[in-house]
Design brief:
The complex is a heterodimer of chains A (about 450) and B (about 450). Chain A is an alpha+beta fold. Chain A has 16 helices and eleven strands. The chains are: A alpha+beta (about 450), B alpha+beta (about 450).
């Protein structure tokens, strides 16, 4: 039976491998990865710019996020309202957002409006207006958002965990800023940020849809050609998280405790990454059917959901998990998570678990390419990670090649219950903190 | 504000899905046992989305058994004699698929996405659990704890959800939409295995369900498979769906919640409205245009007025929910800027509403809103499950395929006068519920 299932998974993988990714080079030398898909009249574009929140100067946390919000609030000949109306009237959804390591942006547009969408994206990147009233409005929106986040147990748990794990490092700072840092950001800060980051040598581009390669090449120059040639490097030092096995509690008057937990993870470029990815899927990444979900939700009814995930920022790696449970039950949940973590280290996974995870991972891959923007995002993600233009053709065979010996070796190497750090927000009963939560960042 | 945002997102999604009707070109057939089947052939990726919609939701529950529809939705994953406990999810996962389910006031739906050569496997599993569900006492009690944890997570830990729950209890005075889909905690705690099985036996049958499959599939392939797996399941006599009507609303209602967990002040104003099925249904189209032009985007009248020009609010908008068997809802929301109060924001909202009702929108506002709504058709096929969701959600409340197909034309036919008439019919002070969230300093 297992043999038949493996055959099936190979069949599933075929259509993805039939996808054609071309490298399109513009006359001036800009490069985009491009998938032509004329099955629906849609064009999607994704761009990635290295250096997001990690490039925020100290004391100006949230600069990248605020600046990116402003890019689509008026550019070139259009004020904020006119810019938004241009996009809306063309049914163009256009956005630019700052992540931690990367700025991501792009659009989805009807193919009849693709030229207009490229033009608006180009204006937003090259000629943002940063009008005083727009800055103030977006600043107020951000401050309002921060007020909400500062009361949100999930955000609190996350900020505290990262602050404790990355002291003195950009990953430990609040990427969306604080009330004080947001208040201190000026127009000059934003102009300088854009000048330093948004440049031709610092931009990765993915294009998908009902458009031809020659048009893409031309539009690359029209859209990005006016950008400065070189960005300022935004390198940060690589550090592992300072996860210590501690547990801290932030008291809040809520009936359910929100828990974020994590330990050091693995770099995306590590040769063991794929094995770690499968390991996480089996343990807590796969939702229903994962070990943690089966035990803590399905068998014991202690939570609505429990998940783990590998987080692979450029300069570190963490293996994270999250769960919520009623205050009276959360101590038991934490104990069960620790036990499951220890068992994973001691015993690894079974051949059946590995086979099932491989079947899921290889079989599900094609469905990730069901939307245009999803494909464009993947094209850019492969460039960010230097995975190569043929990565998607190799990816499933890389997974298929992982043996039980590989994954259990990686389990021994990676799983480290002694470094599993818990950040708990709520009024947990029977939970003993081993340290204070980090001072508010 | 999370609840409002979600509602808004759902409303927008509804529009986008519906507009694309002309592009879906669905085909339909019905089995002898009454199972309706809808097929959208969209072979963009070699995968299918399979959705099974049951015409039963929380608004059909008997008083005292609140949450039983949602409870059963969870329990449908507990297995049959052929499929062990939890096996459904495991089998779909092993085949590279995803699956989940959802319960609403008017329906319960199950979906799976798999490679198209796995279509039969999903149909077999769905047909099996339509008739052969097995539940042990232990499974039921454990899953009830999961649902109580779900309620803690999505309602009790979130002041905005609590306020939303209380608001609906005032917006609907008689109609069961006043009750939460998940149920009140004290009733969930008393739901039993017998309650769940009684619900299952009464309502889970082919003649009370709609199967929608979209993706790499056509009728020629689906029909024999549907016949093979669902055909042998006998129809049942399904109790007719009975729903009350709302009495006239005579007094404006207000409620204010102060919470340590709320970070910012916010204002919501809701009104009962016609839906696609309830009341003056022709107005459903004019109300969509109204919500779009008045508060559907950052160039809408309300956002421009309150957020951009008067700089009173950080957010402001309007939304409309039409896809319900019972009364729909029309609403406004806004959140004050720092240094401004909810009173400032409410006064500005009242002025804007007053102007709208007195003068109506401009012809240009109406034309732009209609064009924007209709243009979303281009994206209809840019998703695997989208078409199945749009069609299933329409059919399960009693709309017809033709209604979905005609959506762009009906939006196009909306006139400025129709928008004014609909606005005046719905936005009446005595029919309003105003809810206010205020942050309370942490103790």
């Amino acid at each position: 039976m297992r043999f038949i299932l493996v055959l099936f998974s190979l069949l599933l993988a075929l259509p993805v491998q039939a996808m054609e990714v071309q490298e399109v080079r513009s006359p001036s030398g800009l490069v985009a990865w491009f998938v032509r898909d004329a099955s629906i009249p849609v064009v999607a574009v994704e761009i990635s710019i290295a250096g997001g929140a990690v490039a925020d100067p100290a004391g100006k946390e949230g600069l990248a996020a605020l600046t990116m919000d402003l890019l689509t609030e008026g550019a070139g000949p259009y004020d904020s309202q006119a810019f938004a109306a241009k996009a809306e009237d063309g049914s163009i959804s256009l956005d630019i957002n700052a992540g931690s390591d990367f700025i991501r942006g792009g659009f989805r547009a009807p193919s009849a409006k693709a030229e207009e969408a490229f033009r608006l994206l180009g204006l937003a990147l090259a000629e943002p207006r940063f009008a005083a009233n727009d800055i103030e409005r977006v600043r107020q929106q951000r401050l309002n958002g921060l007020s909400r986040e500062e009361r949100d147990p999930r955000t609190l748990a996350s900020r505290a965990w990262y602050s404790a794990a990355f002291p003195e490092h950009p990953y430990g700072r609040p990427s969306r800023g604080t009330a004080a840092s947001i208040a201190s950001i000026t127009r000059d800060d934003m102009v300088a940020f854009v000048k330093a980051r948004i440049a031709r040598d610092n931009i990765k581009i993915g294009v998908v849809g009902d458009i031809d390669a020659a048009s893409v090449a031309r539009l690359l120059d029209e859209t990005f050609g006016a950008l400065p040639a070189k960005a300022t490097p935004a390198e940060i030092k690589s550090v592992p998280p300072a996860a210590t096995g501690d547990l801290f509690v932030i008291e809040r008057p809520v009936p359910q405790s929100v828990v974020l937990f994590g330990q050091p993870g693995i770099a995306r470029s590590d040769p063991d990454f794929m094995a770690a990815y499968l390991l996480n899927h089996i343990f807590g990444g796969g939702g229903f059917g994962s070990r943690l979900m089966d035990d803590i939700r399905e068998n014991r009814g202690l939570t609505y959901g429990i998940y783990t995930y590998l987080s692979t920022p450029r300069s570190s790696g963490t293996w994270m998990g999250s769960v919520s449970a009623d205050n009276a039950k959360v101590a038991e949940v934490i104990r069960l998570v620790r036990e499951a973590w220890q068992k994973l280290k001691d015993e690894g996974v079974t051949a059946e678990e590995l086979d099932n995870a491989k079947l899921y991972m290889t079989g599900a891959y094609a469905r990730g390419f069901a939307t245009s923007r999803g494909i464009a995002g993947a094209l850019v993600g492969w460039q960010e990670e230097n995975l190569g233009i043929d990565y998607f053709k190799r990816r499933n065979s890389m997974i298929a090649a992982i043996t039980l010996g590989d994954i259990n070796r990686v389990a021994k190497r990676l799983v480290d219950p002694g470094k599993l750090m818990f950040s708990v927000v709520g009024k947990p009963e029977g939970v003993t903190p081993t340290r204070q939560p980090p001072a508010k960042g | 504000m999370r609840t409002l945002r979600l509602l808004l997102a759902l409303a927008v999604l509804g529009f986008a899905n519906s507009v694309s009707a002309q592009v879906y070109r669905p085909e339909t057939f019905t089995l002898a046992n009454g199972l309706e089947v809808v097929v959208v052939d969209n072979p963009r990726v070699p995968a299918v989305a399979v959705m099974l919609w049951y015409r039963i939701g929380s608004a059909d529950e008997p008083l005292g058994k609140g949450g039983i529809a949602h409870f059963l939705e969870h329990l449908m994953f507990k297995g049959t004699p052929a499929t062990g406990p939890g096996e459904y999810a495991r089998v779909i996962g092993r085949e590279g698929g995803s699956q989940n389910a959802m319960t609403s006031y008017d329906y319960t739906g199950y979906w799976a996405e798999v490679a198209s050569d796995r279509l039969e496997m999903v149909l077999k599993l769905e047909a099996d659990r339509m008739i052969n569900l097995e539940l042990t006492e232990e499974q039921v009690l454990s899953e009830r704890d999961v649902i109580l944890a779900e309620r803690s997570q999505v309602v009790d830990n979130r002041p905005s959800s609590q306020l939303g729950e209380q608001t609906r209890a005032l917006l609907y005075q008689h109609y069961p939409y006043r009750l939460p889909v998940i149920g009140w905690r004290h009733e969930i705690e008393k739901l039993t295995r017998e309650d769940a099985l009684a619900w299952y036996r009464r309502y889970y049958a082919p003649n009370n369900a709609i199967l929608v499959v979209s993706g790499d599939v056509d009728v020629a392939r689906l029909k024999p498979l549907a016949e093979k797996h669902f055909g042998p399941i006998p129809a049942r006599v399904i109790p007719a769906r009975w729903r009350p009507s709302e009495p006239p609303q005579r007094v404006a209602r207000r409620l204010t919640m102060k919470s340590e967990q709320a970070g910012t002040a916010s204002l919501s104003r809701m009104y009962q409205a016609p839906s696609y099925i309830y009341g003056d249904t022709a107005q459903a189209y004019a109300l969509q245009v109204l919500a779009e032009l008045f508060g559907g985007s950052t160039t809408s009248r309300l956002y421009r007025d309150m957020v951009v020009d008067q700089t009173l609010a950080t957010s402001a908008g309007a939304y409309y929910e039409a896809s319900t068997i019972g009364p729909g809802s029309f609403g406004f929301y806004a959140s004050p800027r720092q240094g401004k109060t909810v009173e400032d924001v409410e006064a500005a909202l009242d002025m804007a509403i007053e102007r709208l009702l007195a003068d109506g929108p401009t012809e240009d506002e109406v034309a732009r809103a209609k064009q924007r709504l209709a243009a979303a058709a281009a994206f209809a096929r840019d998703s695997l499950r989208g078409p199945a969701t749009a069609l299933g959600a329409a059919l399960v409340i009693g709309r017809k395929i033709e209604d979905v197909e005609a959506w762009p034309r009906r939006i196009e036919a909306v006139t400025r006068d129709a928008v004014i008439a609909a606005a005046r019919a719905v936005i009446k002070p005595e029919a309003s519920v105003t809810s206010i969230m205020l942050p309370k300093p942490t103790s």
